[in-house]
Amino acid sequence: MLRAVLFEGIDDFAQLESAWNDLARSVDGVRFTQTFEWARLGWAVKTPLRGDMILCATVWSGDRLIAVWPFQRTRLGFSSRLEPLGCGMHEEYGDPLMAPDVDQARVCSELLQLLVPRADLIEIPFVKIGAPMQVALAQAGILNVVQPFDAYVVERKGFEGFEALMRGYSGNFRAKLKQNRKRLQSLGDVSFECPQDSRTCKETVEWVLAEKRRWLLQHNKKSKWLQKIEASLFFSQISTEDTEFGRVGIFRLMLSGKIVAAFVTTVDRTRVEGMIMSFDPEHARSSPGMLLMENVTRWCFERNLDFDMRPLHMDYKERWGNSTSAQLKYRTSLTWRGTASLLPDYLLHALRSLLRSTLSLEQRDAIRRMLNWRHKLKMRDDGAVGRAGNRATGKE
Asked: Residue 292: CB partners within 8 Å, gap ≥ 6?
């Protein structure tokens, strides 16, 4: 007999620790991002606003916890929104932790039924196409905005070792890696490090985030989570914790004692999962990010681990990945208030889909170039106005 229970508030959430850990032990492929500790710290570093709440959807078989799905409820304008509880990036895989010996389709339905009455919108990043939760989400709610993404993985299966993997890449790819490593080595001592002491881990996390912010500023881009303190606090605190289910892994490429590339990841029983990577643009000619990828991939193969580079397309992921999985990001309205809030995004998404299906690749590229040209022209004009203003001020 299955029993679905919604736990609300931090006190109720804390009662789940023992049962949650027992469930995690029963799942061979449990991700570190699906553990009690990951969710607990995600809420601990958050500064809750009025109305924010931690919610945990659970399903039990007798006294045994067989599924858990943690969320935070926040405000989005005049609507309330549910999103998975995590590190603050809102980019973790969004599927619930479920026991392997259950009817997962039924369990996913039970979990969603608990959550639907609790908010106007629900947002789930990165649910695998065809997975039980993706099927359940497709049938839930009033309006769905769905975005497809590919997740890139370097799989260990089928290769005797790292050298066998490398032989599968093109000769040009391997030659460039060797050439770039020699170029970097000509500038000083190059080393690969996996620090675990608290001070070094925190310093590396801050370096990675600072480089990300610098890159966003340079390219006039924005990131909601990078502007907040939550992710920085989260990774700084969890970077030195080592649990039975996994830990955060910090990898860095050093040039004469200076960081030139660094990767913040999670390490669990079956995989390394990449979270955030940055590199020093001063050494971009040597592609330090690609060199670090080579080191991390070798490290994974030596420990019989897959290297999950996660969704969102990046050139380095496409080059290194030997396997992909199709993922969907879901934004679903659960009430008419949520529908009103989601409608503008839904219409924009529908328009983009229509243009994608009717315009040729060349036409879409032409539109993209035009938009980029207008954006650069505006930035140049803004800069000219600023310089003119500065000259006028100087004369005064």
From this structure: 192, 251, 252, 253, 261, 262, 263, 277, 279
